[in-house]
Amino acid sequence: MLRKIVLAAIILILGVGIAFFVFKTEPKLNKNFEAQSSFFKKFPFRLGLDLSGGSHLIYKADVAAVPSGQVSDSMEALRDVIERRVNLFGVSEPIVQVQHGGFVSGGEEQLIVDLPGVTDVKKAVEMIGQTPLLEFKVEAPKGVLQDAVVGKDGTVNVDLNSQFVATELTGRYLQKASLEFDTNTREPRVSLQFDDTGTKLFAQITKDNIGKQVAIYLDGSIISAPIVREEIPNGQAVISGKFTPAEAKTFVGRLNSGALPVPITLLSTQTIGATLGESAVNAGVKAATIGFLLVALFLILCYRLPGLVAVFSLSIFIAIILTLFKLLPVTLTAAGIAGFIISIGVAVDANVLIFERVKEELRSGRTISEAVKLGFSRAWFSIRDSNLSNLITVMILFWFGTSLIKGFALTLGMGVIVSMFSAITITRIFLSTLIFIGEGKVARFLFSSGLSK
């Protein structure tokens, strides 16, 4: 008995600690959240696109030219490139995932991009789909015809672009771009580092054009045309244009993101406002609260003392699940909240099976101690089979479903697993601890069913 009391006390302390953690790490619950330590601030709930608002983009990847055995690798490379570009938005927790050809995607290789908080779809599309074209050009040799335009006043204006000719050096050979600031003027500039091939090409270009201009073009427009003072053998170049810090940062990010491994086509876009997302969160929380209170009332009225124990066990179950959502972390969507609410029902179902078994044993003349012990052992097989069938369904939904269905399956699956622990372990420990009340009429009344015959 002493061991059970100690276990019950430990579970009680852990339950309170877990609930305290959930409270401390949630801004909407903790009014002093901003004053908390950085540890608690690291674990807010991660809300999905439908709850936080933002943009949902679906792209089709053209893999016709990719060998069948390399499609998966190409799609992963595409995901990595797009993810790097998405990070330029400064978006909190963007989601970029591959949807391989199958029934859900209609046999097409697709890329799904969720940008929470980004409602400017046009800007998002431009940033994701745009690949910068970086070129290095040298002065055209003497005698080469140049384009010119004669103005109304008779002046001749030579086309600047015709003064330069292309070289083999392009952004293809770029290894890394970084943002720097001029030590004298404090103006932002972009530093380039080429790979081995690019370093050789750049060294040859600077060697052959000492005293001449080397023009740097971005997307067909000249952005800088410095004069070469000496050969540069280390493959490092600097672009100093009229950049703002934000423009230079975006430029560096675009250069580092590189070219897309496979062509992509935008299939659909969807924008979800923050107001709609907040109302969905409030509705989900309200539904969960009302559902929990009704279930608690049902358990207490039907099963009296065991029902009260089940409510306490259910509270610990909810605290554990919410903590796992924060620590893993799990991206919560409206469908995910629905899965969590259903898992509360699953947890209740296990307790109902146990209590009905206990009630049957009491009717057959068993003592409370024997009834509780046999009730748990005989209800275990039904609980195991029902939860295994739930987990099989969850795995099928997670494996074949879309991202929306996967969110539902994940939260439901986690709830099913934790509910088995809360019903079999927590409820059992606390119910067994309460057996000390004896075997009298009051004890049997408290352990008997309240609304059943």
UniProtKB/TrEMBL annotation:
GO CC terms of this entry: plasma membrane
Subcellular location: Cell membrane
Location of the SecDF P1 head subdomain domain: 167-262
Top-level taxonomic group: Bacteria
Database matches in InterPro entries: Acrflvin-R, SecD, SecD/SecF_arch_bac, SecD/SecF_CS, SecD_1st, SecD_SecF_C, SecD_SecF_C_bact, SecDF_P1_head
Record's bilayer topology term: Multi-pass membrane protein
Entry function: Part of the Sec protein translocase complex. Interacts with the SecYEG preprotein conducting channel. SecDF uses the proton motive force (PMF) to complete protein translocation after the ATP-dependent function of SecA.
Protein name (database record): Protein translocase subunit SecD
Species for this entry: Candidatus Nomurabacteria bacterium GW2011_GWD2_39_12
Phylogenetic placement of the source organism: Bacteria, Candidatus Nomuraibacteriota
